[in-house]
Amino acid sequence: MHSVGETATTWTATGSEAASLRSEFERAIADAPDAVRRRELSDALALGMARVRAEQDGKRLSEDLAARHVVAEQMVFAPWRRSQGLGDAATLVLTGAPIDDELATFLSAVGLPVTSDA
């Protein structure tokens, strides 16, 4: 993976690199230091997935869920993206073969909306 441009808000990756990001997040959950942190990571991911699915369905999140998502972004997703070397990445441009919808949904859920170079 590498950044495009000066601000590093767009990153490019292959499908296998994108899949490894999902594996790394799953590993972060499994390797969390305690049950509380595992629950925080799992809940944040569930919330992110709910946000993406709502957007895909053309729906808005409730104010409560939207507020909880802001917290999840600040406390879970942004720090995790930084730990993966993605800095302030806002978009992931996929090169090569397309990825499945489930992986694209996961990436969007953790704050990496996907576009394709095709």
3D structure, described in words:
The chain is of the alpha/beta class. The protein has one domain. It is 58% helix and 14% strand. It has 4 helices and 4 strands, in the order ββαααβαβ. The protein has helices at residues 15-30, 35-56, 63-83, 101-109; strands at residues 2-4, 10-14, 91-95, 114-116. It has a 4-stranded mixed sheet with strand order 1-2-3-4. A hairpin with a 5-residue loop joins strand 1 and strand 2 (10-14). Helix 2 packs across helix 3 (63-83) and helix 2 crosses helix 4 (101-109). The model is unreliable at 2-6 (pLDDT under 50).
- What is the mean predicted local confidence, pLDDT? 88
Strand order of the largest sheet: 1-2-3-4
DSSP strand content = 5-15%
Taking all Cα atoms into account, the compactness measure Rg is 14 Å
The end-to-end distance, rounded to whole angstroms, is 17 Å
Counting DSSP H or I runs of 4 or more residues, the number of helices is 4
Helix content: 55-70%
Task: Write a short abstract of this structure.
This protein is of the alpha/beta class and 118 residues long. It has four helices and four strands, in the order ββαααβαβ.
